[in-house]
């Protein structure tokens, strides 16, 4: 007999809302039994559970050697290859085998191997490929989608997962075309090659991205004593940090999950890990009321602090509900020696993180709805020199980040590899709109189509988002939200958007429209600020 807690899921609130305690006793038969749906004999336990004075009969039957099961459907872009396996230290390892070692039975099938070629996929095109592959979230077995694509924009992004709208965590992309460097930390046979041309590298990327779809964090943001190292959920840049000329990447990678990740895959409640259910981060920190309440917040972790490097965070002192919020971050070398710093001054790449304390509540982590995984890009800062970037905080993993009035405290942290640097906490007061004009902008800004467009940097397909953004850009050009709407429209129209399953053009490129809305955004703003914001916030 053992004691246990029972947590009850409420589908209306999409969260655990009740808990009670009880006991359970089980006994196991010595002889195996035969079940009609199983091909081999199995074992069964029977017993009794008691909750709130009521007794229930319990039967537990072993139906598989694994704790979970998932079907992964992979699409591969034309002229790219994907076999799902690679040679590693004299043995063949497979995508399914690595997950089976972690207790999850993965069955992978190539669903499409003729996705038309595009040298640079946009946010909208990736989202559309996922949407047209969508399955019902209550389908059995669990299902995930994996795209082996070209590359994301012009960046060196190795993988991506979207988490902007329900159903969440349905799939991810691993990119074939980004190239490895010629560093001696890279195996000689892999130097200068595309990631996809190195089977071990593309396999590791795919394993990592699907891990995110199962709600696993990067170790550096997990407070459960998960060290930054070479296991699967470490970012490629972190793994390269452990490479040497004697043990170069990708041969220094560990093709297994850390014990904590394995425990999460096996024992976390279904809403936390099942694809298509809760948002990325549910069960970590204060997002959701999962039974374990892990509190994966990074702002009190025992990590060495960087000296002579200063991180500054600048937010408006006041704003009103529904207003566009753009925060400026700046990393400054205050010492007298040249220092290496991360160039990833954005929320998407997960090196810069933000903690926010609402008017009433505990600190929560604020994340982008797009999770990009890349190698660690560093730059030298001379004494007195600084780098700056911008992050939009209007619509994030918390949907509307500032959804209630009151005073918020915000702090940023930047991972530099073996050190971190924190900004000083800053306060921001959120008010209700006090005029009719502000109320109109607030109402339009709190429209989910607008919020998602701001977060993605492009208006989603099959929504009236573009029309709503056009209204904001043309009717409220003097507001930050009107300017942001103009930048989103310009960003979207600089290239055509294609549905690669049907080969239909969803949105035509329009140079005149791009120029007109950029000019509109520049009215009253510094051109450098707008271009920097466009680059950093809308990849």
TrEMBL record:
One of its GO terms (molecular function) is metallopeptidase activity. Gene3D superfamilies: Collagenase (Catalytic Domain). It comes from Halocatena salina. The lineage of its organism: Archaea, Methanobacteriati, Methanobacteriota, Stenosarchaea group, Halobacteria. Keywords: Plasmid. It comes from the Archaea. SUPFAM superfamilies: Metalloproteases ('zincins'), catalytic domain (SSF55486). InterPro entries: MetalloPept_cat_dom_sf. This is Uncharacterized protein.
